Amino acid sequence: MARDTSDATPITDTAELAAYLEAGCKPEADFRIGTEHEKFPFFKADNSPVPYEGERSISAILEGMKAKLGWDAIMDGDNIIGLAEPSGMGAISLEPGGQFELSGAPLATLHETCRESNRHLAVLRSVAEPMGIGFLGVGGSPKWTLAETPRMPKSRYGIMSNYMPKVGTQGLDMMYRTCTIQVNIDFSSEADMRRKMALSQKLQPLATALFASSPFTEGKPNGLLSWRGDIWRDTDNNRAGLLDCAFEPGFGFEQYVEWALDVPMYFIIRDGRYRDCTNITFRQFMAGALKGEVEEWQPTMGDWTNHLSTLFPDVRLKRFLEMRGADGGTWRRICALPSFWVGLLYDAGAMDAAEELTADWSIADIHRLRDEVPRLALKAEIGGRSLLDVGREVIEIARTGLKTRNNLNASGQSEAVFLMTLDEIMAKKATFAEDLLALYHGRWNGSVDPLFAEFQY
């Protein structure tokens, strides 16, 4: 999230929190696609991490991008920590370890999404290359230790860094050493949200498998194909993972609110300063937990919006649904992930077919699959079938959905053209992570350094 919210509208009861989410409902004709992607900056000379400060730095890149784009600076105190397109059509933000993120504009077609990514990467290269800086799109930092990884001067990250070791073993790795591609999907009603939430939770492990790209840690194979996927198994299980309640027939906005109310908070912002609130839940906050400690102790809609942004389920509900299961990846994968989800979730026939395919999957099956995928990827099984076989069928369903949308580019190609990357995985029966391991054990002679040169943006 590029900018924390400061909406001072007071909250009087929990019904307002559900109403906030329900306000995201929109007609199908107004559905849009929002794509977010993160990448690791590095110095090309020695593949070392890029610091926040200095002439060649993260802050210098942000200043250069600001001058090129004319976007507004997002500040945390005296530090520039992001950029926002003035009309709200996109933002650039920093993850804790300097991972550079584009939160794309809400766009109508995948063709527009890919053009947006191309433009962003072109401007980014024009600013960063004179500094000797490149960007790597994989799911996990392949070389640097946690101690070597820089820390961004963003107040919420200081609070999170102190809290993470108390609630899981891999939270700091999640913050500082992972990258993702995410897709934001709209819904037309509570019932539509419910269907999309349940189906996309079932298929999130498949997305993790298809986009697995994090087989290295600190210069060596880590025994996994999606280290990032494994990290999320023990980051903070109060706020992350699968939401079992989302599979219940009565699940809706109120049920998500009830879950979110009992998740510990990270912070509130008062007078421009961040106050650590990790010792209370939002429900306790609503009950007056900070009365007498903070002058403006009453919860606001800005507090609620910020709290929602600190919840990390595999599928996150805001005024849209965020698909959060995929590792970061190359440019082609930035286009492939939204094509996968849009094909499945923006066509009624595709949703019906995908629901039928997954109808017999139990909650226990899905949890087991989620646990196995980081190590096995497409070799993991569910319902007696490998994810490779399931993936072939799901990709065909997505292809049909995209063709039905009938959004053509200038060459007459439908949005299904962006599934080509996934078709190649199916044909090879191997993920990008397995390709990288083959290179490491072969031509790269046991080094991860060639990864930076060969797969930079």
From TrEMBL:
GO molecular function, one term: ATP binding
First-level EC class: ligase
UniProt KW Transit peptide keyword: yes
Keyword line: ATP-binding, Disulfide bond, Glutathione biosynthesis, Ligase, Nucleotide-binding, Transit peptide
EC code: 6.3.2.2
Keyword ATP-binding part of the UniProt annotation: yes
Pfam families in the cross-refs: GCS2
Pathway: Sulfur metabolism; glutathione biosynthesis; glutathione from L-cysteine and L-glutamate: step 1/2
Highest taxon listed in the record's lineage: Bacteria
Coiled-coil annotated spans: none
Catalytic activity: L-cysteine + L-glutamate + ATP = gamma-L-glutamyl-L-cysteine + ADP + phosphate + H(+)
Cysteines paired by S-S bonds: C114-C335
GO terms classed as biological process: glutathione biosynthetic process
Subunit structure: Homodimer or monomer when oxidized or reduced, respectively.
NCBIfam families noted in UniProt: glu_cys_lig_pln (TIGR01436)
Function: Catalyzes the synthesis of gamma-glutamylcysteine (gamma-GC).
Protein name as catalogued: Glutamate--cysteine ligase
Organism expressing this protein natively: Martelella radicis
